[in-house]
Amino acid sequence: MAAALVLGIGLMGPAWATWWDHSLTLKATTTTGHMTRDGDVVFSSVYDSSGRGNGDIDSGITAWAGNNDHKLHIAIDQVKEPGAWEIEYTILNQEATIPVRLITDRPDLPLISSDAGLSVSDEPAAGNDGFDGVLDPGQSWDRRLLIAVDAEEPGIYNFSVTIPCRQFNKIYEDTGGWTDTLEISGYVQVEADDPIEPATAP
User: What angle do CA 75, 77, 78 make, to 5 degrees?
Assistant: First the structure.
């Protein structure tokens, strides 16, 4: 009995060695997310909510930097006196597979630039103040642009707003990860007052 056991163990040794000698290969398919493809994060709507009659407002959403619906353009023409306007717009995480952070809560961001005589600010629309700026897939955020002009000289006064986007677990200063940018640009055209014709004697 003992001899048979010793012989059996001796025969198992080469067999185990042969079995473990074969290399083991594992194959797996990794699916990665995305947030910077065309159609991922977009402007989805824009409208004039100010209800003021001073000037003609035209707005639209176009492609920018190679991506559709990434630029919001606003033109306010035929302004003949100081005025203010409120433009509401919506940003949508349309097709990104991960949450997207919009960098809008810093003193220097979004980046706003405007000519002298023009005042521009960007903020959450009414009822959206508590939003933390992170858009889950399919989620949208309503914001508003406040534009005021007090320029006295006729001319075209330009402005722009740049909104940086990051993947949800990154802040603005972080390197690496996905980044994107949404752009708003426009102008206010101030025209000269219509001349007053002198009264004629009856």
Answer: 170
Residue 12 CB burial class (10 angstroms; 0-12, 13-18, ≥19): exposed
Least confident of 26-30, 43-47, 58-62, 187-191: 26-30
Strand partners, 159: 114, 186
Q: Provide mean pLDDT across the span 122-149.
A: 91
Question: How far is it, in rounded angstroms, from Cα 140 to Cα 42?
Answer: 9
What does the alpha-carbon distance between residue 142 and residue 135 come to, in Å, rounded to a whole number? Answer: 11
| Contact residues for 188 (Cβ-Cβ < 8 A; gap 6+) | 55, 76, 79, 118, 147, 149, 151, 156, 157, 159
What one-character DSSP code corresponds to residue 7?
A: H
The region that residue 107 occupies, defined by phi over 0 for left and psi between -120 and 50 for alpha, beta otherwise, is alpha
Distance between CA atoms of residues 46 and 54, nearest Å:
19
